[in-house]
Recover the amino acids of this structure.
């Protein structure tokens, strides 16, 4: 999508601190980290949010979770981590391209909301 920040990051048109890339998935460090480890995992194809996951595009979502598990090993997150996706305005989604936050490196709060 033309004016989508994360489409541009996945295409290399906007710089990012990349931690992983393959044909369908791109992962990079969040510009405003909320924890010592804060990686964003995105599909390269534009999917606006988790509300737009369908039978046709859910394969890449499954793959994102495989990549996240692999990154957790590479980043030595054996004590745990959290994967979060925000959706829509009540969910505080600020970038309208599906992304999963991978957070770790400190004790995370037990409150989710
Ligand atoms: P959301 O609020 O939509 O769940 O998450 C969007 C995330 O994208 C935020 O954590 C924000 O810091 C991050 N972000 C926004 N713009 C950029 C950018 O240009 N580069 C990087 N690396 N992260 C960004
Ligand atoms: Zn996009």
């Amino acid at each position: 999508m033309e004016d989508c920040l994360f489409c541009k990051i996945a295409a290399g048109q906007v710089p990012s601190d990349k931690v992983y890339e393959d044909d369908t998935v791109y992962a990079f460090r969040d510009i405003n980290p909320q924890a010592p480890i804060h990686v964003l995992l995105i599909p390269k194809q534009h999917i606006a949010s988790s509300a737009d996951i369908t039978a046709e595009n859910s394969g890449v979502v499954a793959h994102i979770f495989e990549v996240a598990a692999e990154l957790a090993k590479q980043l030595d997150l054996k004590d745990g981590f959290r994967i979060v996706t925000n959706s829509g305005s009540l969910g505080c989604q600020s970038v309208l391209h599906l992304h999963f936050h991978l957070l770790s490196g400190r004790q995370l709060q037990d409150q989710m909301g």
